[in-house]
């Protein structure tokens, strides 16, 4: 901690939303002020009772400890984080010979503009009317690529750094990365990791200290699908060998008389990789040790740590289906006399896509058809329009590859008669009386909350990504409602399949999607294609 920080002595004041009396509501019992609870009830009446994730996270954030939270998508993690930070005492800093001055007390770091704007919208609703004219004194949204961004961060005064969607911000390699993946991570680290490293160079956390090389190595963790887990001694040797090169800031010791930095990481996929990075590679946040049991906590609301099956990573209220779009021969489907491209359901097993008389021990894989990744796929958009109409969708969200132009995609879908709206930081999704399909790039969907959403459409394999990304994208539906229950939701994935009559092979996209379902322990159901025969 720099000398400038040591020279500043914090003075505790009341929170942004002051407390008025004894707790009466469930949120007040968690530590929020009555005024904040009243604002919450008035502006968000659907938030009646705290979810289990909120009941665990709010007291943890209000306590003097570091926190890692893993909870299902749609469980209210982001809102709970904002509520807890608004309830924390504000700080004034006294300089020698100067009057006390306010300082920035907390950061919430998010991976997308859309999620940042969602936080801002919540904050505007939760702050009383008398403070609305001075919102900059309560909360600000800062982009780090803006020239004035760095000067506004207040590194010397912050008391809490929260990483919402921590794994997306850090983008750590997997449990057993290849040499290329390790090199890419070390050479091209994410802006989120670079920022966190700069903070850790100057600030000590509650639980930071000597690295624990066994952090995140659970002995009883479940296998994921067909994955073969190496023996325990091999796993530990691999992890320890990977930590010989230390390219990040070491955890600083807590200096007497100083207030440590509180580090919070939340995600639906805050797994052993993240905990190993924080505990073994850096020592920034160490959990599950005798030394740190009062200064750090790991909260797992999914049950995966206790041995639940891989399917527990997603709420059971979400149904999954996958449509494969083929190309008939060498001619466009319109030239073949078809109004729509050939659409079929993904077989439950990739080998089932091959006729029985043509099967071998392992079905041969052929490259999937389709244009270049940056080119909008008209056949997939036709299939999307069909699926939207066939399911009678009232409120859906279509997620596209990051390299697709949203303006051109919107125009193409409007030409097909689909009522669409592009989601942007300036134009957030809101409930509609008439059917609507929201459009967004898949890279911006993490943490986004769209009220009343019933369907998510993943268009193309680049939008699907891997099992972790699929978990987050699918989690835009089946959010916890006012009654504490999740409404049913549906995820429809649209992929490119064969070109021509390649009946003796399966497409590479089909193989990838089948492997993803197996990894997550999911069995996709069929989509009703009876309208195609009408």
Describe the structure.
With 534 residues, the protein is an alpha/beta fold. Helix content is 28%, strand content 16%. It has 16 helices and 17 strands. The chain has helices spanning 3-7, 26-29, 34-43, 52-62, 77-87, 113-126, 166-170, 179-187, 191-200, 232-242, 272-281, 378-390, 406-415, 461-464, 467-474, 508-520; strands at 9-12, 66-70, 91-94, 101-102, 106-109, 160-164, 262-267, 296-300, 318-327, 343-345, 365-366, 395-400, 420-422, 436-441, 455-459, 489-499, 506-507. A seven-stranded mixed sheet has the order 10-9-16-15-12-14-13, sandwiched between helices. A five-stranded parallel sheet has the order 5-6-7-2-8. Helix 6 links the parallel strand 5 and strand 6 (160-164). Helix 4 packs parallel to helix 5. The longest helix is centred in the N-terminal third of the chain and has 14 residues, at 113-126. The model is unreliable at 1-9, 19-23 and 354-361 (pLDDT under 50).
Q: Could you give a short description of this structure?
A:
The chain has helices at residues 3-7, 26-29, 34-43, 52-62, 77-87, 113-126, 166-170, 179-187, 191-200, 232-242, 272-281, 378-390, 406-415, 461-464, 467-474, 508-520, and strands spanning 9-12, 66-70, 91-94, 101-102, 106-109, 160-164, 262-267, 296-300, 318-327, 343-345, 365-366, 395-400, 420-422, 436-441, 455-459, 489-499, 506-507. With 534 residues, the chain is α/β, with parallel strands linked by helices. The longest helix has 14 residues, at 113-126.
């Amino acid at each position: 901690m720099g000398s400038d920080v040591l020279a500043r002595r914090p003075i505790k004041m009341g929170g942004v939303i002051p407390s008025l009396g004894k707790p009466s509501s469930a949120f007040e019992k968690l530590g929020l002020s009555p005024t904040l609870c009243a604002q919450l009830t008035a502006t968000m009446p659907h938030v009646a009772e705290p979810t289990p994730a909120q009941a665990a996270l709010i007291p943890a954030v209000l306590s003097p400890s570091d926190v890692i939270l893993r909870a299902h998508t749609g469980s209210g993690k982001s809102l709970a984080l904002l509520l807890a930070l608004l309830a924390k005492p504000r700080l004034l800093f006294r300089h020698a010979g100067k009057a006390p001055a306010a300082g920035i007390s907390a950061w919430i770091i998010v991976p997308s503009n859309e999620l940042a704007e969602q936080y801002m919208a919540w904050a505007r609703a939760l702050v009383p009317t008398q403070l609305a004219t001075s919102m900059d004194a309560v909360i600000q949204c800062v982009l780090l690529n803006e020239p004035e961004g760095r000067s506004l961060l207040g590194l010397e005064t912050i008391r809490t750094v929260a990483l919402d969607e921590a794994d997306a911000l850090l983008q750590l390699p997997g449990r057993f990365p290849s040499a290329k993946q390790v090199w890419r991570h070390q050479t091209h680290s994410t802006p989120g990791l670079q920022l966190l490293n700069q903070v850790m160079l100057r600030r000590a956390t509650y639980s930071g200290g000597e690295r624990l090389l066994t952090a995140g190595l659970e002995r009883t963790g479940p296998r994921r699908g067909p994955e073969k887990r190496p023996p325990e001694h091999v796993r530990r040797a691999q992890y320890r060998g990977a930590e010989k090169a230390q390219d990040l800031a070491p955890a600083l010791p807590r200096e007497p008389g100083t207030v440590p930095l509180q580090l919070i990481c939340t995600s639906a996929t805050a797994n052993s990789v993240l905990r190993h990075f924080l505990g073994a590679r850096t020592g920034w946040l160490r959990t599950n040790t005798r030394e740190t049991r009062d200064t750090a906590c790991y909260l797992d609301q999914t049950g995966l740590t206790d041995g639940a099956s891989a399917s527990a990573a997603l709420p059971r209220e979400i149904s999954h289906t996958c449509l494969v779009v083929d190309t008939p021969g060498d001619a466009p489907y319109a030239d073949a006399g078809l109004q729509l491209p050939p659409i079929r359901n993904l077989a439950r097993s990739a080998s089932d896509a091959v006729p029985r008389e043509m099967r071998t021990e392992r079905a041969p894989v052929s490259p999937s058809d389709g244009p270049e990744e940056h080119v909008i796929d008209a056949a997939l958009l036709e299939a999307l329009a069909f699926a939207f109409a066939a399911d009678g969708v009232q409120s859906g969200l279509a997620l596209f590859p990051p390299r697709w132009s949203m303006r051109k995609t919107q125009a193409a879908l409007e030409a097909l008669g689909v009522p669409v709206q592009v989601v942007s930081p300036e134009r957030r999704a809101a409930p509609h009386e008439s059917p609507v399909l929201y459009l967004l790039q898949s890279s911006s969907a993490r943490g986004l909350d769209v009220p009343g959403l019933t369907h998510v459409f993943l268009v193309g394999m680049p939008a699907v990504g891997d099992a972790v990304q699929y978990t987050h994208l699918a989690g835009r539906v089946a959010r916890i409602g006012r009654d504490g229950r999740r409404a049913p939701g549906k995820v429809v994935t649209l992929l490119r399949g064969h070109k021509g009559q390649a009946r003796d092979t399966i497409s590479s996209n089909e193989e990838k999607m089948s492997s993803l379902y197996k990894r997550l322990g999911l069995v996709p159901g069929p989509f009703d294609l009876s309208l195609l025969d009408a």
